[in-house]
Write a structure and sequence with these properties.
This protein is of the alpha/beta class and about 180 residues long. About 40% of the residues lie in helices and about 35% in strands. The strands form two sheets. A five-stranded mixed beta sheet has the order 6-5-4-7-8, with helices on both faces. Strands 1-2-3 form a three-stranded antiparallel beta sheet. A hairpin with a 5-residue loop joins strand 1 and strand 2. The chain starts with a strand and ends with a helix.
């Protein structure tokens, strides 16, 4: 029976990848590779594009977001029906969902881009949050910010290519729900 050899190699990410040589086949632990990939992704800066859509105010609502690397590589795209909300509630919920997802990928820097000037100004401290339901959502965003080294909020025009994409995703989620009503 052939002998199995086990070698451990430290990596640049301070992990040890265990490599087994067995009958001229190299076997690398999937867990080690996934951890190495996660550690390399953790160092990236991300851009998050989020949008909430409501048909009526309040009305049936959906959220959508995309997480991208700073270089523009798409990491995640997501949309979901969230029930009856105001448009501002949907905007906040889209951002919350995006930040929760981004926190699983990085703890570094995230730039959040939204077309809601009101929400961005509230998050940047330029406007007060007076509505109690929005205040609860605002607090949740503040809690999520603590998971990152830096979070910035930018208001971008609705004509932005990425904002158009997340708007389309949110509206597609609403269209799917409307067909089933």
């Amino acid at each position: 029976m052939p002998k199995e050899k086990l070698f451990s190699y430290p990596t640049r990410a301070h992990l040890v990848i265990n490599i087994k040589y067995f009958q001229n086949i190299v076997v690398v632990s999937i867990d080690d590779l996934l951890q190495l990939q996660r550690e390399s992704v953790l160092k990236l800066r991300f851009k998050v594009y989020s949008d909430g859509a409501s048909r009526g105010n309040p009305g049936i609502s959906a959220i959508a977001f995309m997480i991208m690397t700073e270089e523009g590589r798409l990491l995640k795209r997501y949309s979901k029906y969230v029930g009856v909300r105001t448009s501002n509630q949907a905007q906040y919920e889209a951002l919350i969902s995006a930040l929760e997802s981004a926190s699983k990928l990085t703890d570094q820097e995230v730039t959040c881009c939204m077309d809601s000037e009101l929400v961005v100004k509230q998050l940047n401290g330029e406007y007060q949050v007076r509505n109690p339901k929005l205040k609860t959502l605002w607090v949740k965003v503040q809690e999520l910010k603590q998971k990152f080294q830096r979070v910035t909020f930018n208001s971008v025009p609705r004509t932005d290519t990425h904002i158009k994409q997340v708007d389309r995703l949110a509206n597609q989620a609403l269209d799917r729900v409307k067909k089933n009503l």
